[in-house]
Write a structure and sequence with these properties.
single chain, 436 residues, Neuraminidase, 0% helix, globular, Phosphatase, PhoX
């Protein structure tokens, strides 16, 4: 992904959304205020710096580990990931691989392949804590599987961050820019991977599903012009695996008078959201973000992660630059969308010039703590924040300048799984989450 400028001091206004930030377990008493875990301790192995008392295990390395049944090496560029509870202390991770071009592909096996000319997809990884039990390909023949999101019926929606077609890349056999549903529990039995075309063909980043209504919210990472935030109203809400194939209505965010979400500069800014129908969701001739006249939609620079928690969608804008057409410079924003009142509230602004920058993927722990994956300049951190806005380093990539991606907690909150994309590494992190 494209890097942003500068770093920043995090400004957070969280309105109680993370009131327990890593401060205990579901069985604990009243949570204490989170004050971080202290500075990071240098890793003697030079891979991952963590606070004292924490430890990590490398679960897998792309190009080194081998897939089963002589399927070749584990593909690289691990990105968006989600951990599903699998019983007996196990988790099943569905992990994207943001691959394009001539990369070592996810094996294009029968039943999971969309376009045999495309290298991307997902792998499904079963773990018990930090013990790797198995890794299998679960989606293939896609491009730049960046982020995605989990569904209330325990599937993963893997998003293609591209608009490539055979007309733009002659080697391809199908149009790309879709979302694909991956079932880690084997309930979908298809002859080939099925694109969810009604969710739109665009440079998808991530998706979150409201478990109460079944409505989907999607982000777009695009420029020239900037991408949009979308809402999808499914024809069969909460219908279970495969139900999104029944279609629905795709809409784009419009906040009257706000052409660009980088414009607000005050924490706590609350905006009323409205939604407009997308004329041609499949972008037959024109990209969706170009189908609207000026003033009809609100754009977002570097729309990135989105995660559903506590009745809200948390939406990330990685950075904005006036030199690129944004209304205002920033090194990161997080917005909280309230579907009940149809409002967006600005809960985080990273101003250029500090330690952290370029938030990308976002997750929320079972105890309510927000974790951001950095994809910025310089050192790359996992960042946690207190409810008063103080940022704390959770982990540092000590081995390279590659971005963090796909942070996801086990359902019991004991393990945090995350990827270092450029190095092709997936790690499991544990420690005294209650401390601080």
């Amino acid at each position: 992904m494209v890097m942003g400028t500068g770093a920043a001091g995090l400004g957070f206004t969280l309105s109680g959304a993370v009131s327990s930030v890593f401060s205990g377990t579901a069985n604990a008493g009243a949570p204490k205020k989170f004050k971080g875990y202290g500075e990071l301790v240098a890793d003697p192995r030079g891979l991952l710096d963590l606070p004292r008392g924490f430890r990590y295990t490398v679960l897998s390395r792309a190009g080194v580990d081998q897939l089963p049944d002589n399927q070749g090496p584990l593909p690289g560029a691990p990105d968006g990931t989600y951990a599903f509870a699998a019983g007996f202390g196990r988790s099943v991770l569905v992990r994207n691989h943001e691959l394009s071009g001539s990369a070592v592909p996810v094996p294009r096996l029968p039943g999971i392949t969309y376009d045999p000319a495309a290298p991307g997809g997902t792998t499904t990884v079963t773990v018990a804590g930090d013990r790797l039990l198995s890794t299998v390909p679960s989606l293939a023949g896609t491009i730049r599987n960046c982020a995605g999101g989990n569904t209330p019926w325990q599937t993963w929606l893997s998003c293609e961050e591209t608009e490539d077609t055979p007309a733009t890349v002659p080697a391809l056999t199908k149009r790309h820019g879709y979302v694909f549903e991956v079932d880690p529990f084997g309930r979908l039995r298809d002859r080939e991977a099925v694109p969810l075309t009604a969710l739109g063909r665009f440079a998808h980043e991530a998706v979150a599903v409201d478990p109460r209504t079944g409505v989907l919210y999607l982000t777009e990472d695009a420029s020239g012009p900037y991408g949009l935030i979308y809402r999808f109203l499914p024809r069969r809400p909460l219908g279970g695996p495969g139900s999104l194939r029944a279609g629905g209505k795709l809409q784009a965010l419009n906040i009257p008078g706000v052409p660009d979400l980088s414009a607000p500069s005050a924490l706590g800014t609350r905006l009323k959201a409205t939604w407009v129908d997308v004329p041609d969701p499949d972008a037959t001739t024109v990209s969706i973000r170009r189908q609207f006249d000026a003033g009809k939609v609100t754009r977002v620079p570097k729309g990135e992660g989105i995660f559903w928690s506590d009745g809200h969608a948390y939406i990330v804008s990685s950075y904005a630059e006036t030199s690129g057409g944004a209304a205002r410079n920033h090194a990161g924003q997080v917005w909280k969308f309230d579907p009940k009142h149809s409002t967006l509230t600005l809960i985080l602004i990273i101003e250029p010039g500090g330690r952290f920058d370029g938030p990308d993927n976002i997750t929320v722990s079972p105890n309510g703590g927000i974790v951001l994956c950095e994809d910025g300049d310089g050192e790359q951190y996992l960042v946690a924040a207190s409810e008063d806005g103080t940022p704390y380093p959770l982990a540092r990539n000590a081995g390279s300048g590659s971005e963090w991606a796909g942070a996801t907690f086990s359902r019991d909150g004991r393990w945090l799984y995350a990827n270092i994309q450029g190095d092709g590494i997936t790690v499991a992190i544990t420690g005294p989450w209650w401390r601080g």
